[in-house]
TrEMBL record:
Keywords: Cell membrane, Membrane, Transmembrane, Transmembrane helix
Membrane topology: Multi-pass membrane protein
Annotated Pfam families: 7tm_1
Gene3D superfamilies, A to Z: Rhodopsin 7-helix transmembrane proteins (1.20.1070.10)
Gene Ontology molecular-function annotations: G protein-coupled receptor activity
Protein name per the record: G-protein coupled receptors family 1 profile domain-containing protein
Length: 1056
């Protein structure tokens, strides 16, 4: 790819395209090496040419192969032949021209090699994929294979491969000019003297923004109300209207800001606005384009499938397609943060491809309709077909409606594509004519979002009728909205106060929700009105107070409302699942505590936002999706449960049964989970403390660096410790481990999970680390980490995973959680600790680039693995609590599928949170500060509830001595003590780290002592992963015997 560098004044520096054929590059290479490379390319070219020529002749003579399959193999051999004829020859020419300082020939040969290589490699890759699909179809279709996979279709597919690959090669060699264009878009040299035209562009975008937002809002409401349209088709139109709505709401205001900043020469604002536009704009436009392509394919399927259309094109599949379209468009646009040329290349490939698919679909539709019309007019054909079932008149109308929207999109998008292509081929990087054409093309692209609603109303009668009704209702609704908000919520509060039939906790939640709505109209909106009036009157003191008060109250009330709605959804779910026990568990006191917690948390977060606005931004960005996901999951569970409610009611009407829960086994499982939880806490706490100190401090010392290293090692040690805890506390794991060989498996744990400041992390990979005399300390830390990595990976966790894999007596969801925890422990020794060792040794050898990359990778993997471990431990504690509370319903509610979903959610959440450090480290820090205390709090609450319940059960058993004691108290106490040992070790290993982080945060200067202290805290954390397997073997006799048996077999009979 071409790399273009610009100076601050917009001047272009030497690009890679110039450097690759420069005398400097030739002078830096030995002539012998260049001539040797050219000779190798020539030999390979001759070999490839002769070999593939023979292959093509053999394929031409062969007649037993299926013609489409033979065509694919001939295409593959042709690409290989062309590689030898052109690519290898051009590469040899490039090498020789480089050796002879022929720069002109060198550039031509380099460009030719680049284009042909991209083209031929792309065709080869696509052809190999087509061959694999061809073999799959031959297996699945059976006798229908030869009818479906025809020679004509294969020719079309191969031709498409060549066209796409050729376009890709051309785009890759030309898109660096477009990247240069984008770099110059916010510089004084860009379109100088065109301020009046830029102002006109800004005014047009503002006008189109308003019309696009208003019209698409009405279209979205009208589509929501319309019920006569096929639901998958309506969903596609809703997606299209949503993208047009967001264009008017977000993209066009940003574009108007960009043009205004160019006129005012606010270059910083210009760059931010331009970057935002080129992230948001391509995402929305690509969604529109791909959605229109999906609509064309939908119309084609409606014609071809006939009665099977509604069975194949379902709402669920359409939701998946729409979600995929949004994800692909957003991801491709976000790549522009790393390299602008990625989104340019994506546009140049995606736009023609979508248009080609739409063209092919509509061509096939009209050819099929013409064929159907001829059949209908032929009196000889009397047999009805599936097309006769289809209402052809209505179908033609729907096709023409979609085609009008498609044509409008093509007309609006085509100029932009042409202008971008012209920019790529232009030698004048910032010509005023190109700037004007580019602005006009962008206006046309945005105009499509305004034009679409009018096309919907013109061509779709159902939407037109719903639009008229929506406008009439909206006029009355917006007039009454402001008046009824205060009065309505006041009446609701009075009614809830008088109502006595509602369950008090549920009533309290509704009262809280109504109160927040009332306070919005009573407090927040008047404060904002005061703010704006003070701005107009220039009362700046009153303006600041009103702004801060409105800021605090708005965030408090909005977030309390969101959390209360989430609590209501969970309350309804509990009322369904708990049955008669609902009123005992969901009490008024607990609900008061929850509501008070909502208010306190949000008030504190909003007050902190006055001094540090980023806190409330990050807090709301995490809380809002979390609450929405919980509400969605709760209501999904409610509706799924109601579907089977009738059968459950019949089961509950049977005579009461004794508690079939094996209390002894349950107590043992609870103690085992608790031990692992304690071990994790002890190992993770030191690192958590160290990272807090690092965040708050401004000056570091040698001791702090050592403590941090020890904390990281202690964190990793948890991965080694857990397998021994499993063997010590879980007899089933210990028994299943007999006869197994020690296998190497991948597992994960948490590495560097704390908050960090950029200055402190730079100290770790900087020359100041060497000047402070930390070479020997770093080598020692690396040696300790290597030892702990070996023990965590090889000593215990591999055996634990094998034992859990063989063990069948454990409940599958519980076993899955234990395997997830053992996997995190194993990956600590396999991935996290080696990365940490690379960080330390690269700092010792002053390889600062490698040190920075290894440090970032260690931090990302550490946060991800630690987060998964903590969340898994919390889920294990909740799993044990549910096994105690739910009884016979435990296996119905806690299923393997739900645990898989939970674990997958943990991995995705932790990976996303850890990768956020690439963009903003504060997001990762906030995730750590929320997830760690929350996980520990959930575990503490779960185990507290377990022990209180077991104590109550023991008292009941003692009062009824005539009944057999179903609980093996001695065995249970042993299991409890085992779990407490693991949990205590985790707390001990993890506790130093948060304190070290706090000290670093409180300090005012940076020094090597901070690095040493933090490393010591890290070592303690890693040490927990090594200690866990020994605890398992010490406290769980079954695990100890299985480990001995496995080691004895490995030493004596390694081949068995």
């Amino acid at each position: 790819m071409a790399e273009t560098n610009l100076t601050k004044d917009g001047a272009q520096t030497n690009a890679f395209e110039d450097f690759r054929c420069s005398p400097f590059l030739a002078g830096g290479l030995q002539p012998q090496s260049i001539h040797f490379s050219a000779t190798v390319y020539i030999i390979l070219s001759i070999t490839i040419f002769l070999g593939n020529s023979l292959i093509l002749i053999a394929l031409h003579k062969e007649s037993s192969l299926h013609p489409p399959s033979k065509l694919l193999y001939r295409c593959l051999a042709t690409t290989d032949l062309l590689v030898g004829i052109f690519s290898q020859s051009m590469m040899a020419t490039y090498c020789m021209s480089l050796a002879n300082d022929n720069c002109s020939l060198c550039r031509y040969a380099s460009d030719a090699t680049f284009i042909t290589s991209y083209t031929f490699c792309g065709v080869s890759l696509l052809t190999m994929t087509a061959i694999s699909v061809d073999r799959l179809l031959a297996l699945l279709l059976g006798l229908r294979y030869r009818q479906t996979v025809t020679l004509k279709r294969t020719y079309i597919m191969v031709a498409a491969f060549w066209v796409l690959s050729s376009l890709t090669g051309l785009c890759c060699i030309l898109n660096y000019r477009i990247a240069l264009w984008l770099e110059l878009s916010c510089t004084p040299s860009f379109g100088g003297g065109l301020h009046e035209i830029f102002t006109f562009f800004s005014a047009v975008h503002i006008l189109l923004s308003i019309t696009a937002f208003v019209t698409n809002s009405f279209i979205a409401v009208a589509l929501h109300k319309e019920s006569s349209l096929h639901r998958p088709s309506k969903l596609l139109y809703c997606s299209l209207a949503t993208t047009d709505l967001l264009v008017g709401l977000v993209a066009q205001p940003l574009y108007a800001t960009y043009w205004v900043s160019l006129v005012q020469e606010h270059w910083s604002l210009c760059r931010y606005a331009f970057d935002a536009v080129y992230i948001m704009g391509p995402a929305l436009f690509l969604v529109s384009l791909m959605t229109m392509t999906a609509i064309s394919v939908d119309r084609l399927l409606a014609l071809l499938l006939g009665l099977r259309y509604k069975q194949i094109v379902t709402l669920k599949r359409t939701y998946i397609i729409v979600a995929t379209i949004w994800i692909l468009a957003i991801v491709s646009s976000l790549w522009a943060i790393l390299d602008d040329r990625i989104i340019i290349l994506h546009r140049l490939i995606t736009i023609p491809l979508c248009l080609l698919i739409s063209l092919a679909s509509y061509t096939k539709i009209f050819r099929t309709l013409r064929y159907h019309q001829v059949q209908a007019e032929d009196p000889v054909q009397q047999q009805p077909s599936q097309l006769n079932v289809l209402n052809i008149a209505q179908y033609r109308k729907a096709v023409y409606s979609a085609l009008w929207v498609q044509l409008a999109l093509v007309v609006c998008f085509a100029p932009f594509f042409i202008v971008v292509t012209a920019i790529a081929h232009s030698n004048k990087t910032h010509s005023s004519h190109l700037v004007i054409l580019w602005g006009i093309a962008d206006v046309l692209v945005y105009f499509n979002s305004t034009l679409n609603p009018f096309l919907y109303c013109w061509r779709i009668s159902e939407v037109r009728q719903a639009m008229k009704q929506t406008i009439r209702q909206a006029l009355c609704f917006y007039i009454l909205l402001s008046i009824t908000a205060f009065a309505g919520n006041s009446l609701i509060l009075v009614a809830l106060y008088k109502e006595s039939s509602l369950h008090p906790p549920s009533k309290l939640l509704y009262r809280c929700l109504a109160t927040t709505d009332l306070l919005v109209g009573l407090v927040a909106q008047p404060l904002y009105a005061t703010y704006w009036m003070s701005v107009f009157q220039e009362h700046w003191s009153r303006c600041r107070y009103a702004r801060d008060a409105g800021y605090v109250t708005s965030y408090v009330l909005i977030l309390v409302s969101l959390m209360t709605m989430t609590a209501i959804s969970v309350d309804r779910l509990l009322a369904l699942l708990l049955g008669l026990r609902y009123k005992q568990i969901v009490t008024l006191k607990r609900t008061y505590i929850i509501v008070t917690t909502f208010w306190v948390f949000n008030i504190v977060a909003s007050l902190c936002g006055i001094f540090y606005p980023s806190i409330i931004y990050l807090y709301s960005s995490l809380v809002s999706p979390f609450c929405l996901v919980i509400s969605f999951a709760s209501y999904t569970k409610i509706f799924c449960t109601l579907r089977n409610h009738q059968a459950q009611v019949r089961d509950q009407q049977q005579s009461s049964q004794t508690n079939a829960l094996n209390m002894a086994r349950f107590r043992k499982a609870v103690d085992s989970a608790l031990w692992v939880q304690l071990a994790l806490v002890v190992c993770y706490a030191p690192m958590y403390t160290v990272e807090i100190v690092v965040t708050c401090t401004n000056k570091y010392s040698l001791l702090l660096v050592i403590v941090r290293k020890v904390a990281i090692i202690l964190l990793y040690y948890n991965s080694t410790l857990n397998p021994f805890l499993y063997c010590w506390k879980i007899s089933a794991v210990r028994q299943a481990n007999r006869g197994n060989e020690c296998r190497i498996m991948s597992t994960t744990n948490f590495t560097r999970g704390g908050t960090k400041t950029k200055t402190f992390e730079e100290l770790v990979c900087s020359p100041s680390l060497i000047m402070d005399g930390l070479q020997s300390a770093s080598v020692s830390f690396a040696a300790v980490n290597i030892f702990l990595a070996v023990t965590a990976f090889q000593v215990g966790n591999s055996l634990i995973l094998v034992a859990l894999h063989k063990e069948s007596s454990l409940h599958p969801p519980s076993k899955l959680l234990l395997r997830c925890l053992a996997t995190t422990d194993l990956l600590v020794g396999l991935v996290a600790q080696p990365l940490h060792v690379i960080t330390l040794m690269s700092a010792v050898h002053e390889h600062w680039s490698l040190c920075d990359h290894a440090r970032e990778a260690s931090y990302i993997t550490g946060v991800a693995l630690c987060g998964v471990s903590l969340l898994t431990m919390a889920v294990i504690s909740v799993d044990r609590l549910l096994a105690l509370l739910l009884g016979l319903r435990y296996k119905e509610i806690v299923t393997l599928k739900r645990i898989y979903i939970t674990i997958a959610s943990f991995w995705v959440l932790c990976l996303v949170a850890s990768l956020c450090i690439i963009f903003d480290q504060r997001i990762t820090n906030l995730f750590i500060l929320i997830s760690v205390p929350l996980s520990l709090l959930i575990s503490l609450a779960s185990y507290t509830k377990i022990f209180r319940t077991l104590r109550h059960h023991q008292a009941q058993v003692q009062q009824q001595p005539s009944q057999p004691n179903a609980l093996n108290m001695a065995r249970y106490r042993k299991a409890v003590h085992s779990a407490l040992w693991v949990q205590s070790v985790l707390v001990i290993c993890y506790t130093p780290c948060p304190f070290v982080v706090f000290v670093i945060t409180s300090s005012t200067t940076y020094s090597s002592t901070s690095v040493v202290a933090r490393e010591i805290a890290a070592i303690l954390i890693y040490f927990n992963s090594t200690l866990n397997p020994f605890l398992y073997c010490w406290k769980i006799s079954e695990v100890r015997r299985a480990m001995k048996q496995t080691i004895r077999q490995a030493l004596c009979c390694p081949w068995s």
